[in-house]
Amino acid sequence: MLIDRDAAVKAIEQYGIVAINDGRKSLDTVDDIVELMRIVRAISAVDAVPVVYGQWISVDGTQECDEWDCSVCARRLTFGEEMNAEDVYDLNPFCSQCGTRMDRGEQDG
Ligand SMILES: [Zn+2]
After folding, report:
1. DSSP string, 28-78
2. What is the distance in A from the centroid of ligand 1 to the CA of 51?
3. Could you tell me the distance, in angstroms and rounded to a whole number, from the CA of residue 20 to the centre of ligand 1?
4. What is the pTM of this model?
5. What are the phi and psi torsion angles at 79 (to 5°)?
6. Is 10 left (phi over 0), alpha (psi -120 to 50) or beta?
7. CA-to-CA distance for 53 and 59, rounded, in angstroms?
């Protein structure tokens, strides 16, 4: 289950503020942890859809190719001339057929 990070941070900050305002003199770390975990668990879960990235796959397996396929739906880009991967991604940040966002990953160049 996922929770909103800001909501968790706010809840923990609020716990600290209340402790200070109440003039708490004792610091029982274990009690604090138990109470903070209860507070975090009580934060309602949020829905989140993981972002799916696709890749342009060169048809001939090289980094210079005139045809590139979407890794998600297999839509083929045909350029009529050899294109390097950088240009393919720059020109086609999304697949026009399935809408997937294209990400080359960590490669450079
Ligand atoms: Zn696609």
Report:
1. -HHHHHHHHHHHHHHSPPB--PPPPEE-EEETTSSSEEEEEEETTT-PEEE
2. 14
3. 55
4. 0.56
5. -100, -25
6. alpha
7. 19
For residue 72, the CA-to-ligand 1 centroid distance in Å is 5
Please determine, for residue 106, whether its predicted confidence score (pLDDT) is greater than 70: no
Kindly tell me the burial class for residue 8, based on how many C-beta atoms sit within 10 Å of its own C-beta (0-12, 13-18, 19 or more): middle
Cα of 27 vs centre of ligand 1, distance in Å, is 56
Answer whether 107's CB lies under 8 Å from 86's CB: no
CA of 31 to the centre of ligand 1 (A): 52
- How many percent of the chain have pLDDT more than 90? 70
Give me 87's structure tokens: 């240009």
Task: Pick left, alpha or beta for residue 45 (phi over 0 → left; psi -120 to 50 → alpha; otherwise beta).
Answer: beta
Residues 9-51 have pLDDT tens digits of 999 999 989 988 988 877 788 889 999 999 999 998 888 888 8
CA of 2 relative to ligand 1 center, distance in Å = 28
